[in-house]
Amino acid sequence: MRFTIEERHLTDLAGRLVATPAPVSFHSCDAESVEDAVRSFVQLDGAELIGRIQTFPGFQGIATVRKPTGVYTLAVAPASQQLRMT
Q: Is this structure's pTM higher than 0.70?
């Protein structure tokens, strides 16, 4: 199944909220489940999962990750685009 991952930048390294006007980026990947999509993204992006992946009906979910550039929220939902994760 193809998923779209919305990556929303929350804090910088010092823990301050990000003040940029549009701290959001979008990615896509193929995975068997929401959990697999998040784990694949985390591995490819060099991130660390914080807590657990929360799933919702309809193959949707959210997760929080930490990267060298700060803390991010990932929102995962089904997609139909044929783009590779970047």
A: yes
